[in-house]
Amino acid sequence: MGLLENFLVSEMSENSGSLGVCGWFLVILSSLLTFTLFPLTIWFCIKIVQEYERAVIFRLGRITDRKAKGPGIFFVLPCTDSFVKVDLRTVSFDIPPQEILTKDSVTVCVDGVVYFRVSDPISSVANVSNSNYSTRLLAQTTLRNVLGTKNLAELLSDREGISHSMQASLAEATDPWGIMVERVEIKDVKLPQQLQRAMAAEAEASREARAKVIAAEGEMNASRALKEASLVISESPSGLQLRYLQTLTTIAAEKNSTIIFPLPMDVISHFMRK
């Protein structure tokens, strides 16, 4: 009984300057009622919040303290006090797909995900009616505003930069609401079917062009190698004969049903000298 009385007296002294005469009268009346019906009213005075929760207490419509109560047990006065529980855990939600016109006049459909949590319970209760719903709406408009300044190439290649830009914009707007935006991610970018076909045709043409360039470079390198080989073989008649025999071996291995009658190199050498 003594602890409860001391608590009520301290709470009344802290808020004496802001309640006014009528407020004082109601608080004293509520305190007397609590003391009179103590065994019964104790169950209405004791409240409990979890480790991840905080309680913002209002006394006659005014916030009693600039710091939220909890976690654990706290006391309230019946009839004059009310409180709002605030969850401090990180909340994630999906941004619905948004049709956005990029800087280069391309219509794309983009969706994302946002992670946020309450950093200041009192501001989240006193400064905005529904912090969760307001943050969701603001995330949708911020997605449109940020992506509207990007062209299609930046949208497809610089998702991390876009996510950081969105996070900075959301954090600046939600800071007065007591909300901390922890992370923003772009999930999917859907392009129109015609644009997808055009990009696929462009990519295929680019790959074919690179393949032709590579094939031409290979032919050129092969021609140079053959030229050098012919110069080396022409300097050594024995080397030419060994190459001739190696070619015959290769042909015999691949088409062994064919009978080949090779001409002696001495007969061919006469025509090679001419």
Tags for this model:
single chain; 274 residues; alpha+beta; Tetrahydropterin Synthase, Chain A; 3 domains; 3-stranded antiparallel β-sheet; 22% strand; disordered N terminus; transmembrane
The structure class reads: alpha+beta
Q: Encode the helix/strand succession as letters.
A: HHHEEEEEEEHHHHEHHH
- Please provide the count of β strands: 8
CATH topology of the largest domain: Tetrahydropterin Synthase, Chain A
Basic shape: rod-shaped
Number of helices: 10
What is the percent of helical residues? 55-70%
Mean pLDDT: 79
Low-pLDDT sequence parts: 1-5, 12-17
C-alpha-based Rg, rounded: 42 Å
How are strands sequenced across the largest beta sheet? Answer: 3-2-5
Biggest beta sheet summary: 3 strands, antiparallel
CATH class of the largest domain: Alpha Beta
Beta-strand proportion: 15-25%
Distance between the termini: 129 Å
CATH architecture of the largest domain: 2-Layer Sandwich
Count of discrete structural domains: 3
> What is the CATH superfamily of the largest domain?
Band 7 domain
